[in-house]
Amino acid sequence: MKHFTEEEKIKILSDIIAIKSINENEIEVANYLKKLFDQYGIESKIIPVTDTRVNLVAEIGTGSPVIGVSGHMDVVSPGDESEWTSDPFTLTERDGKLYGRGTNDMKAGLVNLALVMIELKENKELKNGTVRFIATTGEEVGGAGSQKLYEEGYMDDVDYLWVAEPSHDALVYCHKGSLNLRITSIGEAAHSSMPEQGYNAINPLMKYLLEMDDKLNGDNRKNEVLDKLIINTTIINAGNQVNSIPEKAVAEINVRTIPEFDNEEVIDLFNKTADKYNEEGSDIDVEVTMSLPSVFTTGSSKMINLAKELGKKYLDLEPSVIGSPGVTDASNLLRGKDDNFPFMAFGPGETKMAHKTDEYVYKDYYFAFFDIYKELILGLSK
Amino acid sequence: MKHFTEEEKIKILSDIIAIKSINENEIEVANYLKKLFDQYGIESKIIPVTDTRVNLVAEIGTGSPVIGVSGHMDVVSPGDESEWTSDPFTLTERDGKLYGRGTNDMKAGLVNLALVMIELKENKELKNGTVRFIATTGEEVGGAGSQKLYEEGYMDDVDYLWVAEPSHDALVYCHKGSLNLRITSIGEAAHSSMPEQGYNAINPLMKYLLEMDDKLNGDNRKNEVLDKLIINTTIINAGNQVNSIPEKAVAEINVRTIPEFDNEEVIDLFNKTADKYNEEGSDIDVEVTMSLPSVFTTGSSKMINLAKELGKKYLDLEPSVIGSPGVTDASNLLRGKDDNFPFMAFGPGETKMAHKTDEYVYKDYYFAFFDIYKELILGLSK
């Protein structure tokens, strides 16, 4: 019988928090987990995404149902480390909270999934079906890891999926998509006293951006759960001398899409509007730098129902069932699945704590989710 | 009798080109010229502008008329030096041209003025009146040097002014003003999935800039010589993460003003429009970073007439008499003078060559302007 003690659980989380997997180095997390799985005879596979970045997939059991459980191994930058009360990469307990970059988003969830796999296997608790543990790379910067897993068929036979993203008080069953575009406007340099000898790249770009903003934010289509699409110009840069007409202006845009107004339609609208400007003498180019579709499921599933019950039982609260504006790896992992696919994001931590200085997860919730995940798997695999 | 040989003229220009007075180090040029003046008993005075930057004023003769002759000691950056055929700070002759940063704009003109002063003094050629040599600092970046000289009264008693800026084929008797503004829009950061928790600083700035562009470029007022005012947004920067709503957006604007639509009116319009935006919830701030007024004179003067004749005589061409879009130190030096003040920019070199890689001045024109300047002074001081 294997029964992880609280000390062991803290030790393993602490080891993984110490790995600075800031948009890179996920391979160290993968190697750590692979070694842990190896100790208990669980087969796992490192799946390269780039030369240096990898996913990890591990599996126990056989046959159906296939329960997919997923978490990402990367964390965001701690920002100014001097603003942290304790070192962001040293798991530190204060007042019942476990502090550290990634405690909340989402190494506590990820470690729980791994440890549950081990106990289920070691104690032969899983009588039926398969559990596929899916640890991804680069979730915070475009989801290259989950894209790779989708492409390689790791989701083809999956019957249930949850990602252990931080949301202990809510079951997220659908979320917006996220689309990043880079818009480049090319002009011609000239001295600002003789602008007619050049072409100012900034003005057509500003007009274009405001027109796209009007078109998209002004669109009335609405998703019943996710509400409206949202667009924001988040970066703009042009020029370096106040006396020179700028020859290049570049903006970056983030669009949060909904099923009713999806990534493809938005991209098409950007391209068509650029064409219009270009016919009038501008030189505007549209580049898609990231495109993650929205995830929409009905939220009616055995999995959601069971998760709600377990939330009540172990967390002493009634998790709400909601849509979210933020993306997860499900944008990639659920490509091609229909609305009835049982999906949720549910894990120790809080959405609002993600990416913050002094990020923490409640220790009790970290432990509670171990039990929730284990019962959830046993309930679904019956 | 002192008569500078061509070799001496080249040597002195070469020494001054070798001084890298790129928006700084004008003091080395001033010290060089002061030492030269000292050798010939001409009194000169270093006039500090900042801790490290200075003007130089030298004078010969007494009483009226007071003829002001002026040039700036700074040059613009050579840019990528590897693109120059020869070292930009080593005066190099090829095919009758003298290459080097500042040969054209405007050390050839400046050196001529200094050498003419010396011959006039040494040979007692100046029978009447005063010649005031005015060498300035920082002309290329806002005219702090000329502003200082105006404030300290060095222009109060001046009857004629020419600046030896490069324009061998044209007498520039009026030019536009130049106004630089920095516009800062403050918002509030938020994650791009929840923009309602913040305020995007970019959008109001873009709207404001386009509105100002419409207002100013759309204004029909026209100067008979200088044509219309021109505005350009030349720099814009905001945001650094595609997933973050930017909390700050900054733009820089250059406006080329005319007497009919002057700097004060433009500044007022920028401020009033910002007030309107701010009443509607934006936070837009307007900062004036440089304000050089336009220079408008009638162009009818003994000086212009004489300069035209001398152009024909020494350059074998008929200089046109024109207005120019580019500013000179006259924006500051002529503050408070009326339209009848005799002013011109006239010197060896070409406007279009200014600030270019492989900048050069024709050697023959460099020498010719020595004679032009000398005869001009003698003609005006009669």
Topology (SSEs and partners):
The structure is a homodimer of 382-residue chains.
Chain A: H1 6-17, H2 26-39, E1 44-48, E2 54-62, E3 66-72, E4 92-94, E5 97-99, H3 103-122, E6 129-136, H4 144-151, E7 160-163, E8 170-175, E9 177-186, E10 190-191, H5 202-217, E11 230-238, E12 244-245, E13 248-257, H6 263-279, E14 284-292, E15 295-296, H7 302-315, E16 320-324, H8 330-333, E17 343-345, E18 360-362, H9 363-380
Please identify the top-level CATH class of the largest domain in chain A: Alpha Beta
Give the helix level of chain A as a range of percent. 25-40%
Task: Work out the oligomeric state of the chains in this entry.
Answer: homodimer
When the domains of chain A are counted, the total is 2
Tell me the radius of gyration of chain A. 23 Å
Biggest sheet of chain A: strands side by side, in what order? 1-2-6-3-7-17
What's the main sheet of chain A like? 6 strands, mixed
- The low-confidence runs of chain A, each spanning 5 or more residues with pLDDT under 50, are none
Which two chains form the greatest contact, residue counts included? Answer: A-B, 44 and 44 residues
In terms of DSSP E residues, the strand content of chain A is: 25-35%
Shape of chain A: elongated
Under CATH, the topology of the largest domain in chain A can be stated as Aminopeptidase
Order of helices and strands of chain A: HHEEEEEHEHEEEEHEEEHEEHEHEEH
Helix and strand content put the structural class of chain A at: alpha+beta
Tally the beta strands of chain A.
Answer: 18
